[in-house]
Design goal:
The complex is a heterodimer of chains A (117) and B (113).
Chain A (H helix, E strand, L loop, with lengths): L3 E4 L2 E4 L5 E7 L5 E7 L5 E7 L6 E2 L7 E3 L5 E6 L8 E8 L12 E2 L3 E5 L1
Parallel strand pairs in A: 2-11
Antiparallel strand pairs in A: 1-3, 3-8, 4-5, 4-9, 5-6, 7-8, 9-10, 9-11
Chain B lengths: L8 E5 L4 E6 L7 E8 L6 E6 L4 E2 L4 E4 L5 E6 L8 E9 L14 E6 L1
Parallel strand pairs in B: 1-9
Antiparallel strand pairs in B: 2-7, 3-4, 3-8, 5-6, 6-7, 8-9
The chains are: A mainly beta (117), B mainly beta (113).
Chain lengths: 117, 113
């Protein structure tokens, strides 16, 4: 009963390096999301997916790419990391829901803390 | 999606009720009110949601005004573990729309011993 698992939990990168954050959910959820959270701020949506093989841009997509090749996994990539991408990244998922119950109830991962030097 | 306004911070004594207000004056008829909280350094956690009727679950109660322009989240007996940032969000029920929830800055609730 893992829910949403994010790896890695911590990572330090140098400017220009690339990396991928992995989000895995075992709840058979259709929708998955990547958010970033900077100190003292709310969450900002980077990219999201409404199903396997689909992705869409959120509020702050620049500098990131995503893929959803398998329903249970949602990958967030940084091709050339910049100090401005230092943040805590949260992945979330939710099901389609039926009627009232379960609508827009997101399950979040524990977060991945990324530092870009 | 409608925007919300919450006080940046609130204090509450342990064992007392914590009442967290939220204004959402531009909410539309098909938008729900959702509450999440985020305990320091953890991922946000769903608390409760409602459309127009008051709702209660094992965590909290949600009171929505008749005109739906504001709501209050009530933690009936706050504990130190309830210290967190509380987010009030309005959004459509998703399904095919895949509607997204927008998290603002929320209210930092501090429960004091």
């Amino acid at each position: 009963n893992a829910g949403v698992t994010q790896t890695p939990k911590f990572r330090v990168l140098k400017t220009g390096q690339s990396m991928t954050l992995l989000c895995a959910q075992d709840m058979n959820h259709e929708y998955m999301y990547w958010y970033r959270q900077d100190p003292g701020m709310g969450l900002r949506l980077i990219h999201y997916s409404v199903g396997e093989g689909t992705t869409a841009k959120g509020e702050v997509p620049d500098g990131y790419n995503v893929s959803r090749l398998k329903k249970q996994n949602f990958l967030l990539g940084l091709e050339s990391a910049a100090p401005s991408q230092t943040s805590v990244y949260f992945c979330a998922s939710k099901n389609t829901g039926t009627a009232f119950s379960g609508a827009n109830v997101l399950t979040f991962g524990a977060g991945s803390r990324l530092t870009v030097l | 999606d409608a925007k919300t306004t919450q006080p940046p911070s609130m204090d509450c004594a342990e064992g007392r009720a914590a009442n967290l207000p939220c204004n959402h004056s531009t909410i539309s008829g098909n938008e729900y009110v959702y509450w999440y909280r985020q305990i320091h350094s953890q991922g946000p956690q769903y608390i409760i949601h409602g459309l127009k009727n008051n709702e209660t679950n094992e965590m909290a109660s949600l009171i929505i005004t008749e005109d739906r322009k504001s709501s209050t989240l009530i933690l009936p007996h706050a504990t130190l573990r309830d210290t967190a940032v509380y987010y009030c969000i309005v959004g459509r029920r998703m399904e095919t729309s895949g509607s997204r929830l927008t998290f603002g800055e929320g209210t930092q609730l501090t429960v004091n011993p």
